[in-house]
Structure formats: C-alpha cells, structure tokens
Amino acid sequence: MGATDVNLAELIGSRICHDLISPIGAITNGLELLDMVGAVQGPEMELISGSVGSAGARIRFFRVAFGSTSDQPLGRSEVAELLKDVERAGRVRVNWNLTEAVPRNQVKLAFLALMCCESAMPFGGQVDISASDTGWQVTGTADKLNIDNDLWKNAATGNFANKLTPAQVQFALLPETAAAMGRRVAAEIGTTRVTLRF
User: Fold this and answer.
1) In order of start, what are the domains of the chain with their CATH numbers?
2) What is the pLDDT of residues 61-80, one digit of tens each?
3) Of 46, 80, 82, 105, which one has the fewest beta carbons inside 10 Å?
C-alpha cells in the first residue's frame, strides 16, 4: 500500500463518517425529544439510547483514526471527552497523558495504535498514551493478552504473511501513515503488555 492508497483510505473514511454522523445525531435528538415528553420509557429506551450513543462515539473516533489528516490541533479536553465516550461501550480504559493540544495527524497515529492494542486485549485492560520530545508511546496492559504474532512482529513494516481482515486494518494503516509523516513504528510484546512507539 503506497502513500496514494493511504490518502484514498483517508478520504473514504472521512466520507463514510461524515455521511453517518448526521443521521445518528438526528436519532439522538429524536430520542431526547421522546424522553422530554415521556413518550417512551423503560429498559428499551435505555438500550436504544445507549446503542446510539456508542455508535456516535465510535464514528467520531473513526473519523480521526481513518479520516483525512491535518496539522489542525486537537485539545486535551476534546480528545479526552471523545475517548471517555468510546470507553463506555468497551472493556478498555484509556489514559490520555498529554496536557497540550496536538496536531490531528498525530492523534490519528495514536488512535490507530490504540486500536492495535485493543485487538490484543479481548478481555479488557488499560491503554496509556503519552508523548515526549523523542516521540509517542502507546502501551496496552492486561492480565490476559491475545497476541497475533504475525500482526505484532510486522507492525513496523506493514508486510504481513497472512491476509488482513477488516478488524485488523489498523495494523496496515499505522506504519504507512507514520511513514507519510516521516516517522517509524516500533513494537514490543510482553506477557502482559504491548507497546507501540512512533
């Protein structure tokens, strides 16, 4: 996959997220109106509301992870709020250990790395994201990890022996997106920890 393919993937990601966020927002508004007038109440309403909220959070997350990039800064509160919304529907807790606003393209790399870590933690865990002058570090920690050796051993190059599934696309996009920004990915695997640096 070359730089042109990465750009095309970003445009497709942006388009899909853009087209889906409006109807999901409309459904959320409709549910709020129904709640205000007391038309529908009970566990069914909670289930629908929770599902729509989760879908909206994931689409906003995917818009950054898979969408087109820029140097536009994203503030700490904006990123932390987005990650908190995504956390509600999953088993992984995320610590965004940055206090300053950072360019959107760097947040994109962090989100792709976060998705890689999530794939190794099917039973839940914690992901810590930090950055320094030497680069970014995304570390996933869990009591039980499920490591796909082909993915993790080749995460730096993006050259995999086995064909990727849609659930693994972040492993292909991370090194290609990093390379387009002049960065290299390094991966470390432990018994209870996986780390990606770029």
Assistant:
1) 3-197 (3.30.565.10)
2) 999 999 988 889 999 999 99
3) 46
